[in-house]
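Hello,

Our lab assistant flagged a job as stuck in the queue for most of the afternoon. It eventually completed. Since we weren't sure the result was trustworthy after the delay, we are filing this so someone can double-check. Below is the sequence as submitted and the structure that was eventually returned. Let us know if re-running is recommended.
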Amino acid sequence: MALSAAGQAQDGSGFVISIDGNAVSGDPRLSTTKAREDRVLERAKLQVTFDGLEVRPRLTALITNERTPRAGDVMQVQSQMNYPAYVTRGEIRLIDTAARGGPRVVATAPIAANGTANLQVPQGDDLIMVYRVYDAQGRYDETRPVPLRTPNPGEVTDLEAPPPELGIDGGGIRRIPVYGGAVTVSGTDVRPGAVVSTLGETVRPDPSGAFVLQRILPAGDQSVAVKVNGAGEDTYVERDISIPRSEWFYTGIVDLTYGLRTQGGVSAAGGEFDRSYSYGRIAGYTKGKTQNGWILTGSVDTGEEELSDIFRDLDKKDPYNVLLRLQRENAYPTYGDDSTYEEGAPTDGKFFLRAERDGSHIMWGNYKSSVSGGYYLRNERTLYGAQGVYRSPQTTSRGQSRVSIEAYAASPDNLPGRDSFLGTGGSVYFLQRQDISVDSETLTVEIRDRDTGRVVDTRTLTAGRDYRINYVQGTILLSEPLTGSTTSGTVVTQPGGEFDVLLVANYEYTPVAGDVDGYSYGGRAETWAGDNLRLGYTGLVEQTDVADQTAQSVDILWEVSERSYLALEYAETEGPGFGSSFSNDGGLIIQNDPTAGVTDGTGEAVSARARVDLQDIGLQTPGSVSLYYEDRDAGFSTLDYETRVDEQLWGVSLDVDASERTAFRFYFDSFNDADGRIKREGGAEISYLVSDRIKLEFGAEHLERTTPAGDPDENGTRTDAALRATFTESDDFAWYIYGQGTLDRSGGLERNNRVGAGAKYRFAKKWTLEGEISDGSLGAAGSALISYQRNETDNLYFGYRLDPDREFAGTDLIGKDRGQYVAGGRRQLSTDIDVYGENTYDMFGSHKSLTNTYGVEYRTTEQLTLLGSFEYGQVRDDLNGDFDRKGLSLGARFEDEGGLSWRARAEFRRDRGETLGTNRDSDAFLFVSSARYKIDERQQLLFSLDYADTDTDNSSIQSGEYTDAQLGYAFRPVDNDRFNMLFKYRFLKDSVGQEIDGETGRGPRQTSHVLSLDGSYDINPQWTLGGKLGGRWGKSAPDDTIALADNDAFLGVVNGRYHLTHKWDLLIEGRYLEASDAGLSEVGMLGAAYYHLGNNVKLGLGYNTGSFSDDLTDLTYDDEGVFINFIAKF
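-- returned structure --
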């Protein structure tokens, strides 16, 4: 090998050129050092790799206690993160969300990155844990809140869980900019007992001697040291890695054709074409990072269009564009090269663009908006269009960006659905609609005042940890049961609880009728004037024809500390909005609540909320004062409020911890509306800790209620007093008794005398029993729940609830309400089998409902996993009608290193009966499967089948039958690739023809078989022979009003190609097309010559004697003539 003097590396320059480990130029010492490092790494089976600049920060805190920690226990927490180089400190924060006066941080503990921390769990029934890390500028990242009552709260169990090197990300708030490169250190054969020290961590390999550790490091030169010690190992090596500041990947093609027809062509509709034509396609993808930190991602695919229209309607929505590109006649299920498809630029249009830096970005494509921050207005939708998010690098002393702006503009494909479920005490809930858009859901648990509808508290659930969802069946499975009510205060105003606990599901769905075409745009802007004052504006506009609405709000937040603030907001909405639905029984019976918004009408709302911590105003006594005021006009409509009459609410409370033993609380709440309804409630409470075992509570409350359209017992005044004694016998057992009586009353309000008792008992380490029973003037009430938590994966529960104030949506109580039972659980029978089940039985007088849900996951081998679930619901109601629902889901997945992998899932659902006079009969069966078999290194097979058969009322899923089956084969030799072959068969039957692009009518229907075979053989490096056979046999119709007609065609192609490297490409091709149903049989010849202009561009001239192309879907027959083809590839 000869090297010119100019190209030689000089001694001492820091560079070396080596071949097979032998230095040929430069400093030979470098080559020796590098070779020695490689030998050490190889001997220890260690690898140090740079994974590129596409980094994904991960932040998680895992609780490592053997059981869920309780008050007084020492909680052990393990930090897990992959970007410690970007943080300076971290802390574990425990927050009591039910503390007097509002959420309060009750414990903190510092924790090092990937280190551990211990802290004692304080008292509190609703404790949550968050892990927060800070950078040098005070910005922070924080995990999503984890309730301490959740078994194994820091971990997610999922069949699709990422491999260890990817880890689990529990991040919620992200404000620290992280950019650099990912470096992975791994090993496969470390001796048992040895430990590995690298990247600032100490790792213990698994029993097989394998380990993986990944960290994100800043750009620049980095030295990665790997040390293995113990068990006779003593290995140390350093590897220098240079992480670039900029890195790019791009690919693209420009294909332009200009032609002159020798005679005018005729389209399928009979129209004539011009003699000259020009068309082309531009497609490409790029992703990279600039030196100043911008990450850019872009893609474009104009499709094949006339050149005059190629850049027109680039933003036009086309939800089928990806499928259409993959299902063209010249596309194959497999190309035999083990390639996979990943959507790195999701878009429903022709292009995608995203530019991001330091937490800010601007983009065009598919995204999920998350406009929030105000009290009244928020928007969480999956959309296609433009989005911009700006987070200023300057922050407040608490880590918030001083300026934050989010804006979006979109053309929605779907409509937002909103279902509310009163907690049943169980875990299974059925959405109103099926076929939910994937990843479009946002689930929250809301606590609402039962009488006024005021939202008292909201908690957002996390997919995988808090719930799982079946998008086809529309079924939600919570990780723990959800009770239906809760209460606060000593005096029991309503035996069943003053506050409803609701599961609220917001999601996207495609309507089967109605025009969704329109626009959705809006956003939020907020800025901090100093460290304490925030100004905000939110605007939302929906123009979908189905439910046009405009909403906007302005708000001010004065934040004195984490516990003292003043928040003011004014909001208005114009237009009808979208409405919602409500269910008392988990979704079997659903009541649709029409929107309170009025077309061309406006509703206004005002909110004021304040809280002052007494210690923030100089008092030494712990405590707080809280106030709220809300005023809403009729017609005000948002995701959380549907205001049908003018209403006004206000309230004030004072909580004081006078001493370690004594606490006071005073409160007053007022509600009135334009219909004359009034509810005013005020009271005082005192609690005294007699000893560590006994606590006494006394309360008095005055209630005023006016309901002009209600029954006499809903009007009047009443004054009650109550006494409660709580006995804490141990950390595992506490019980209480209470009694209350009515001191004075007027009007029709009944007396509220009541006695009751309750307890919570943890026994045998894993069992918990809690419940309450009471009786009095307003009727008997009770609740009980016994649960068994065997370990992180196994639990059982049985519960009962009786609420004398309970109402059932759309159903009047006839007879006696005998309450609601629920029983269920999860169990890991072995390392291979998981099962779960739940049964709910509701006896609301003559309306009786039963719901059964069962599921199993069976990992039969390391390769095969089986899944199944069964759902059954039954309603028996002599007045409103009977109803039955059956749902079955079966799934399987097989992964074999030998080359075979397949997946299959079947879903069946049957509804029978009626509700309130509405027939709800429907059947739906869906089946999806795919398989891939690598016969050997040269051959691959691929199969897929999608099948749907539905018979419905068209309210959720369109009726009809759809089948799409594909079989693909590829012969692509590795050692000798002179001969290559691709084969494809496709069967398509579509009697649905449903359109999802905003049109209300159905699209084309067809039943067809399509065969395609492509092959090529290299005679020598210059000459290649090729051929193609294609056939289509079937029937089609443009819509469901026209009968299906035969539409058969056959195509044969033979060609020869000549390639002179970097110079010429020649093509001569013979074609035969027969379309008997169109009365066409033709033979054509095509010849073309291409000249290469460099490595990326070629220019061709050709002539086609036939009027048809090699695409069986092309029915224009206008291809005869001369053409010039320009192709550029990058």
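-- support follow-up --
The delay was a queue issue, not a problem with the job. The result is valid. The longest strand covers residues 900-915. Residues 463 and 469 are 8 Å apart (CA to CA).
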